[in-house]
Amino acid sequence: MRDCECVRDCMCSCAGEENWVDSRTVYIGHKVPPPGTEAYIPQRYPDNRIVSSKYTFWNFIPKNLFEQFRRIANFYFLIIFLVQLIIDTPTSPITSGLPLFFVITVTAIKQGYEDWLRHKADNAINQCPVHVVQHGKVVRKQSRKLQVGDVVLVKEDETFPCDLILLSTSRDDGTCFVTTASLDGESSHKTYYAVQDTKAFNTEEEVDTIQATIECEQPQPDLYKRSSTFSDVPLGSENLLLRGATLKNTEYIYAVAIYTGMETKMALNYQSKSQKRSAVEKSMNAYLIVYLCILISKALINTVFKYVWQADPNRDEPWYNQKTETERQRHILIRAFTDFLAFMVLFNYIIPVSMYVTVEMQKFLGSYFISWDDEMFDEELGEGALVNTSDLNEELGQVEYVFTDKTGTLTENNMEFIECCVDGHVYVPHAICNGQIMSGASSIDMIDSSPSAEGKEHEELFFRALCLCHTVQVKEEETVDGIKRGIHQGKATSFYISSSPDEVALVEGMKRLGFTYLRLKDNHMEILNREDEIERFELLEVLNFDSVRRRMSVIVRSNSGELYLFCKGADSSIFPRVISGKVDQVRARVEHNAVEGLRTLCVAYKRLSREEYEQVCHLLSSAKLALQDRDKKLAEAYDVIERDFILLGATAVEDRLQDKAADTIESLHKAGMKVWVLTGDKMETAAATCYASKLFRRNTQILELTTKRTEEQSLHDVLFDLSRTVLRQHGSMTRDTFSGLSSDFQDYGLIIDGATLSAVMKPAQEGSGTGGNYKEIFLEICRNCSAVLCCRMAPLQKAQIVKLIKASKEHPITLAIGDGANDVSMILEAHVGIGIMGKEGRQAARNSDYAIPKFKHLKKMLLVHGHYYYIRISELVQYFFYKNVCFIFPQFLYQFFCGFSQQPLYDTAYLTLYNISFTSLPILLYSLIEQHINMDILKRDPSLYRDIAKNSLLQWPIFVYWTFLGVFDAVVFFFGAFFLFDNTTFTSNGQMFGNWTFGTLVFTVLVFTVTLKLALDTHYWTWINHFVIWGSLLFYVIFSLLWGGIIWPFLNYQRMYYVFMQMLASGPAWLSIILLIMVSLLPDVVKKVLCRALWPTTTERIQVCLLMLVQYVLCPQSFDWLMY
After folding, report:
1. 405 in active site
2. Of the listed 150, 163, 339, 405, which one is catalytic?
3. Among the ranges 162-176, 667-681, 870-884, which has the highest mean pLDDT value?
4. pTM
5. Is 405 annotated as ligand-binding?
């Protein structure tokens, strides 16, 4: 083994000039150079602790309070509370302080609990035991104590605790198998290789003797970019094991830690958890500012008019305000400012503090309807939907863009061999699904199963090619991933594992067709043919698959000494390289299968002479030994070797979609949502899934923005070509203008890969004229596409895509859904994040806002629950502002009749209980159970979702209507009562009505009107509605009778004694109450009737149809169709 290398001179100079260097040197086992060695600089690295929590024990209170008081409403109520404490105001500080304290406390408890769960999850990971080699022995320590340079022992089925360089494995060839489901969403097995110089070190004692350095780049989030050297020997991505991946089918490995904790690639791809706010909450804040301006205007007007009133020497401060002489002698500016604050407090109730309490309760209680939904319960998992945060319920009804992962989200990642085509002859075996023969598969169905002699040779070559051209490994055990599989007649059988589930399906398909791949032993591949004879082929070279070539090849030597090059790959990469074979027949079958959404591969071969083989070996060895541009030279060598093929045939494999995934995507499209697929998978694989899921349709024209195309043209030219293509037909209009389903417009689908996206997102260089426009051009193309597929995406790139759409000029509401840790970043970035409880762990479900068992449940969550939540909370918000305008505007008018003395119109008990007791329960219940239309109709007609799109129920015109309706009703209450009793101020016993009786009369009309207004808006009546609505009115009457019928000893005033009974004893009072309620409700009723008759929405039309149906069912003889 080589001695420890010194740090490079360039690193030394960099370290001397500044703290940051562009690479790091890792000493394996912490074996640093001897003291005094030149250029040795100790480097400090973080430990292996993972932190996903937001708060600590020490910063929770100040940080949480700071975040909560960033809300305009909370800050405003804090100021009002402080004003009530400092100066003498008409109302008690408790009326503002108590609701504010309740809101802050409830919110803090909820957010604290959620963060405690994150702390708990972090501790479970950080305290997980790992095995480390120290002084020739294996010791056990907690994961958080792992350090860069530690040599780690990882056993089968264990997860890698940090980013590691593989030193040696239990396998003689120095390979190990890994699943990276939590990183890139692929649950298949990938092969990784030990460093060539250390793969023979297989014990703790041997590993402990290694003295070497690894020089690697500083941490960066790109999962697909890895650069390092082992004592000047270049290392590639096949040597690097990433945190979160799992060791499979390998007994143990030894590896050295190079990135730990928050510097691992997976941690760098995590998005920080931020507070999400819904569009409704933003509307509430905007309305709050408007009402705050109205409040200030009211206080200012009253203050000015007060001093205009008191300018007359005969008018002074009313005696009942009990101002002291000192207060009267203060400077006029101080008195004016104090009076302004007092008016602010008096009219403060126009800002509904109780609305925020009610909204919090509505969100919290309403979230249980998702958890309780039996239709979203999965029998297989034994779990239903989960709500991790209830703050975004209504946002589910506003989604415009859906970003979904592919593997494990849209698909089950379960490949099924469907058919193969050899020289035009189609072979259709019965279903084989990842090694499991389905029931009833007792024979093989072949169409035209007796080809010619030449066809027979091609048939066997085709089957041999698929048995040899792959990277499949054979596992001779009874279990795979801890699950017993394929037990046949009590005996364990062999199973296939591979980095690609497609390869497993193909090899299993060949097994059903009579050719069984047995094993790779001593560099020889063994096949069992139809005659039960074992054929041996020496594996000479493997030309691995890559996303640019889109094919792979093997060179083998048969027992007879013949040399073959077998190649399989995408049709676009095989057909141009074919010189003979039945190309037209095979191409027709490939196109037919592609339209059906199947994943297709073409298979070809050629025989090599000894001279040709020697040339191939020379080309490959020269490219592999190149120190610079190694990948480029390998690609050039592959291009020369993989030519002049004879076409054999093609295969078709299906990546089974999740149940009802295609139906769900179609429903989302009809609802007006755009669906994007963001995946780490290959382009061909992802595109086939998009066709199968109906994301891409038969008439969809596919536009490619990929590395392959940008190598042929500049990115600038490609973008402008695509832009001209999509805008040629649509002109300046985007697809948002249309339904997305119209046959009059060409459907476009865009495919982009991660490398090209990085180029598009790159900031403009100084002096470049067009670089900065790439994002806008890209967005313009996307807006005109019905669907977008982003493949080979790193986790952070998924989040960047979501962020790009969020920040576009339309500011659409986005939703991200995925099932793996690689989806966490986009889930956190989107307005709404949904995790699927899939096979790839629970990271996505734990970090999401909502978790569902299957993708199909997204349909009901958005189209039904989201629709209901938005309708309910929109009514709640508008209704609260409306009823508070009705409540406070009479108080404003009353000041003009009491000398602007800040005298309240209503009693303190009424002021306090109006929003808490008298009017709170009906709207809370409405916001929990209202169903303006049946949920079955919402599921059957997704277009109804469009009626509430773009926050339509909280637009400014609707807000203005509710506000003016409140002002109108307030004017009716006040002046109606004022003029009706102008000449009728005596009761039957001769007593005169006073100001408290007048205020009580106005308040009674107010309570009945706003409650009956809600009753008119209710479509879904149950016994609970009746109980709460009529019970609230009854409670008000009973409370008023008790409050005014008893002399309460704890009160220092008895101004309300007998007031309510006195008012009810008056006949005109009863008449006035009924008349004023009817006049107040009339404009809203007229407006509803006119709008339904002249400009009905789709929802209102359906409501009318349902009403007709009910009436016809109840009384068919007397039903009059002409009425409708």
Report:
1. yes
2. 405
3. 870-884
4. 0.72
5. yes
